[in-house]
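Q: Make up one entry.
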Amino acid sequence: MSTVPPLLDTALALAARSVPVLPLRAGKVPFGNCAACSGNACGGRPNMKSAGPCHCPKACHAWAAATTDPQVLTSPAWATAWRQAVSVAYHPGGAGLTVVDLDNPAAVDWARAALPATRTVPTTRGEHWIYQGTTRSVNGVRNGVDIKSTMAYARWRGSGAGSTARLPDVVRALTVKEPTAARPAAVMVPARAEGGECPHRTPTYLDRGIAMAEQRIAAASSAVHATVYRTFLAVLSTHGRCGCLTDAHTARLFAAAQAKGESPRHCTDAWTNALTTLGL
């Protein structure tokens, strides 16, 4: 009597829970394209970004091959892959999930300080924090932190512990690339008025500008990190060179950002990046 390989048994159990799965070979990498699909000659899988007519039955399209169909998982075309596989992976986005992959102790410490508690899974070097909801997948959003959701796969390391929380804006914001410091010419910084006081030092003008910046941050429903950075950039582009900003104004902006879930470190980084972009 034939027996189901342990990895396939795990894959079938996950598929029954509507988690799309795929086998991984040595090195924690998926199985590469077969000859017919090499170089995307087949046109891509239907669930890939570039949809195409491919009907290849093999597990040869990385995350896009992930499936919940038990007939596909147990098919002869996948048998070789399961015999060579060393672990099971899943497509988080296909299961409506996002994995925050924390690859070292410092990254785990950051998550504990900056992110809401959620289901956690121990890994070899750190932890996976799993949230309900999907977003872009981006590697290296911080030192030792990768975001895995749509168009990505994560190694299955068990169910973990805790309840799965809703994906927070702070994680979504991490996937938004900030403007680089290589484009300062696009921002106009007013020069200090000659022979007189700073033209922005009137309480009405300055307080209105800070209040508008606070409102902009508070109104952000997504991409909070990017909104905070751009707001800091706008404030500094108007007031950064003339010297009218005080520590009290900066504290107000940081407080507004932290009320939306930004950590003090995020605030400092965004402020520093804005100063660099403007050449201040």
Q: What stands out?
A: The first helix runs from residue 6 to 15. Residues 93-168 form one domain. The radius of gyration is 24 Å.
